[in-house]
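ERR on first pass: missing label on line 2. Operator R.T. fixed the label and resubmitted. Corrected input:
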Amino acid sequence: MISESSLEKLKILAGAAKYDVSCASSGTKRSNTSGGIGNAAAWGICHSFAEDGRCISLLKIMLSNYCIFDCAYCYNRKSNDIQRTSFTPDEIADLTIEFYRRNYIEGLFLSSGVLVSPDHTMERMVSVVKKLRTEHRYNGYIHMKTIPGASQQLVSEAGRWADRLSVNIEIPSEGNLKVLAPDKDYKSILEPMKMISSGITEAKEERKKYRNAPQFSPSGQSTQLIIGATNDTDNTILKLSAALYTRRDLKRVYYSGYIPVNTYDNRLPALITPPLRREHRLYQADWLLRFYGFRNNEIVNDENPNLDLELDPKVTWALRNPHLFPVDVNTADPLMLLRIPGVGTKSVQLILMARKHNRLNSSHLKKMGVVMKRAQYFITCNELRSRNVQDLKPEIVRQLLIDKKQISSDSAIQLKMFYPTIPVLR
Amino acid sequence: MNIYSFDNTFEGFLTLVFECYNSKQFPDEILSGEGSQTVLFGSDTLVVTDETKAERVWNGIVKKSSEDNAHRIYRVFLSETQETPMLLIKYVRLIIDSEKNEETNFSVPIVVEFNKLHQKVCREAQRIHMFTRFQKTIEGSYYASYAPMYNVLPLCIPHFRDRFADQNWIIYDLRRNYGFLYDLKTVTRIVFDDMQVNPQSGQLHPSILAEDEKLFQRLWKQYFKSICIEERRNEKVHRQYLPQRFWKYLPEKW
Ligand code: SF4
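pass 2 clean. output:
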């Protein structure tokens, strides 16, 4: 039962969960079964925006902030002297349903500190999710964290009820993880990831044969990496992401600029503000991996191990490869169009459609959302050739394109990436 | 000058298109709105809505372009700005008069303009999906209201009917003074005459709120506060994505 006392718990356990960045609730289409409540829209819906500008789509909450582990980067670590509490499974289920019925949220994102043992914690979490699906006949979205070290059986059970499972890697290299999270190792993280990914593949195969075979984490799995708490380079980070996308079929890798929650711990760097600009560049690079056909070593490699903070990674890449430009927008193939700085996926679609009708000039391109300020140095269209990267030399173009914007607008751009695209309403 | 007027329904608009082609007289101006003085006295041609004619135009558009495009025209129609009917006439003429399907020809300005407005209407509808906040009443049904910029409620109803299939609800447009009621079976269009609602904020009168409604509003407010990371506070983005005109309907901003 929800009562006045739930307010205090909510304050503590939402506050404890807020560092998990994953907000995407998209990717599943779950229709409402008759008589039940809720569906998961294929696009995720943001229901509000917090005062830090992040989208609020899910009730992101911890079952408990008690933890037997002592990870250096975590606010909830055992050695921190903080107020601790736990919800009962019923409380979370009720809260989810009540919020959902008022259209406050798109679903539940459930995580937890390690209470007693990984299996004990996981069991309680699974019971929340199962309650929602069976007792409350709830068909809305559920994202559940799996606890490192939990048994295979519990992970499988979780996958039956949740839309998405995730295990946070947090630290991008094993050596650094060992130093900062002595209770964890890559095995305890990567094993469940592997379990989830094979669970997903098997369930998909089964469902091809039998339409009613049970689903397993139908909207895939995701993970989170903390940026700037260690000396790992962007090259290390993006190599890991690329491997996760191709070999483990992850839906998303989230990057979270390290927020110095435990300033007393000298294994961690003394940051004054979280590295938001780097985080933003990583999201852009991640976008290039997933939607623009780039390979990770085209973006960063041994010679250029870190992203240029002053420039969009696509611009950096283009400046390193001036011989590929300028591109003729009226004839270039789609993959090359995607590689032009200032041209997004949406614009490419529009260009491909529109050039069947007419030869395009720069005013057409502008209307189709091409950022001419950047694109002008890399394209030719139906006009006199403007000054391009070949004539001007990359170094000069670089100076012309440097991002002079403030950090504050950076997270605005990043937010756009989280912001779901507008669905075609029918 | 050719001035047409119609009753401001979508069928009326399609009929208007039909009459234009029939008489080969295209409007320089279109007046809309039922029975208003300007409409009655200011126009040369008063269009009488006719389902059959409307359907023929609809089918013509589908044939010349696509069903999606016809739906887009409907959505743009719901923008109900003063310029909308003239913009739509131009767009529909382009579609009907061209040999090829022109709906994706983004080098034609009217196509771009049409799609921009379409985008705006969809975005407003999306905001209703996002920012609707139900208040639970003493009888156990759920109520929400808004004053959307465009007349987008009809576009949102299928989503709410699907998602909240097992609860009674009302969603009301305070600006246009009509809404929809769902009673677990069907959705009906309604107009309140005696409202227990504050027309400014859309809040229900406290006497008809469910007993625990205030508690859940407080819990939601608390959640909203707790989830914000102080180190990343960014009011600019917050305001950009959560337009101020919606704040009065959102318990988290009360
Ligand atoms: S196990 Fe999780 S909750 Fe516990 S200290 Fe480590 S990161 Fe924090």
